[in-house]
Specification:
By secondary structure, the chain is of the alpha/beta class. The protein has a single domain (3-168, 268-382), classed as 3-Layer(bba) Sandwich (FAD/NAD(P)-binding domain), CATH 3.50.50. Helices cover 37% and strands 25% of the residues. It has helices at 11-22, 48-55, 59-64, 87-90, 102-113, 156-162, 230-240, 248-255, 284-287, 296-313, 316-332, 334-342, 347-359, 366-381; strands spanning 3-7, 26-31, 42-45, 71-75, 81-86, 98-101, 118-121, 125-128, 133-136, 142-143, 146-149, 169-181, 190-196, 199-205, 212-219, 262-269, 275-276, 279-281. Helix 1 links the parallel strand 1 and strand 2. Helix 1 (11-22) packs parallel to helix 5 (102-113) and helix 2 (48-55) packs across helix 10 (296-313). The protein is globular and about 65 Å long.
Length: 391
């Protein structure tokens, strides 16, 4: 398989493009957006994914663009500071784990591939024939040996080849919304968090960012809404957070003017197989672990590396399945567990969590407590031994 089409120019797509090109394939990437997507929220790179970044020669560049977050401060409804944590502990990061803005990482990956990979923007796949002929919304039909779906949890490629999303989606019972807001709190590499029963608001500002990002997460049964109606989604968010204290009302006012508003359910994608005929899925398209896992970017990086390597080594999509399946399952298991600590269900549980955070620096069993927080993430992030594929 030497002529390969990738659908999606985000982390999974650009990383897959890089490794396939290094293994001698001719690669085309089609992306619905008119250009590489900028902005986004901060993401973690941990464990095996750091090895992939290092093998791509990007480790120093990623470090140079790290968010450099310092602390996370919790506030009560009246705006009183109730607890403070080190940012790495708050994010479950250990050792050499790195945090970077999603747009910065995507830019680095795109710059690494743009001269050797054909990018087709403002277009999308409409059909994939058994002989590999692909039709597009705008471009003329073309024939490929393989189509890689790297187009996210709501993958168009997966829908075409495998069926509707409802057959693979597993709703965890929460919603998430993220957007840019003015840094009215004067945050400097700091996260400010306010939690109430069933909902959490978080606003943060990273290094070299004059603005801030607001993140909201709340528990909810499935909501009926139009994915294209951003105004309606903002109203749903406002209703979900109604009555919250601290700075939440002011943040919701700022959300009304945001032009990078993101809104979605906290959902995982579970599939028995990630390949069918001439189509294979990578990243969120095949095995979304949800934002609650903190491992979506790492899964994309590792999955792309293994897929390209197995195709080049002759293991094919079966080899990709064998090498990656246990790693995916370990990281997906983090989502349902983590989200319960991100959105606290009752006042009693919230009171207990706040007291534990406040006491943590002074407890004699501090290291054991930290291990309970960061240990499962670290083990999942390293739950694969990466092969050194020949180029």
């Amino acid at each position: 398989m030497t002529n390969i089409l990738i659908s999606g120019a985000s982390i999974a797509g650009t990383t897959t493009a890089y490794w396939l090109r290094r293994h001698g394939c001719t690669v085309t990437v089609v992306e619905r957006a008119p250009a590489i997507r900028e902005g986004g929220y901060k993401v973690d790179i941990r464990g095996a994914a750091l090895t992939v970044i290092e093998r791509m020669g990007l480790l120093d560049a990623v470090r140079a663009r790290s968010t450099d977050m310092r602390i996370a401060t919790h506030y009560d409804a009246r705006g009183r500071r109730v607890a403070t944590l080190d940012a790495d502990l708050f994010g479950g990061r250990t050792g050499g784990d790195l945090e970077i803005m999603r747009g910065d990482l995507n830019e680095l990956l795109y710059d690494l591939t743009r001269d050797d990979v054909e990018y087709v923007f403002d277009d999308s796949i409409t059909a994939i024939a058994e002989d590999g002929t692909v039709t597009f919304e705008r471009s003329e039909p073309r024939k490929f040996d393989l189509v890689v779906g790297a187009d996210g949890a709501h993958s168009n490629t997966r829908r075409i080849a495998f069926g509707e999303e409802s057959g693979f989606a597993r709703d965890l019972g929460y919603y998430i919304s993220i957007c840019s807001v003015p840094n009215t709190l004067g945050l400097d590499r700091e996260e400010a968090v306010h939690a109430a029963p069933g909902r959490t608001a978080n606003v943060y500002s990273t290094r070299q960012d004059s603005g801030a990002k607001a993140l909201f997460m709340w528990s909810s049964p499935p909501l009926d809404y139009d994915h294209r109606d951003v105004t309606g989604q903002k109203e749903l968010l406002t209703r979900a957070m109604d009555g919250s204290g601290w700075q939440v009302p002011a943040l919701l006012e700022a959300v009304r003017d945001a032009n990078d508003f993101y809104f979605d359910s906290v959902t995982q994608i579970h599939m028995d197989r990630w390949s069918k005929g001439r189509v294979v899925l990578v990243g969120d398209a095949g095995y979304c672990a949800s934002p609650a896992s903190g491992q979506g970017t790492s899964l994309a990086l590792v999955g792309a590396y293994v897929l390209a390597g197995e195709l080049a080594a002759g293991g094919g999509t079966d080899g990709y399945e064998r090498e990656l399946r246990a790693f995916v399952e370990a990281n997906q298991a983090l989502g349902p567990a983590n989200v319960k600590g991100m959105v606290i269900g009752s006042r009693a549980a919230l009171w207990f969590q706040t007291r534990m955070i406040r006491l943590l620096p002074h407890l004699p069993g501090r290291d054991r407590m930290i291990e309970r927080v960061a240990g499962p993430i670290a083990r999942a992030a390293n739950a694969i031994t990466l092969k050194q594929y020949r180029e």
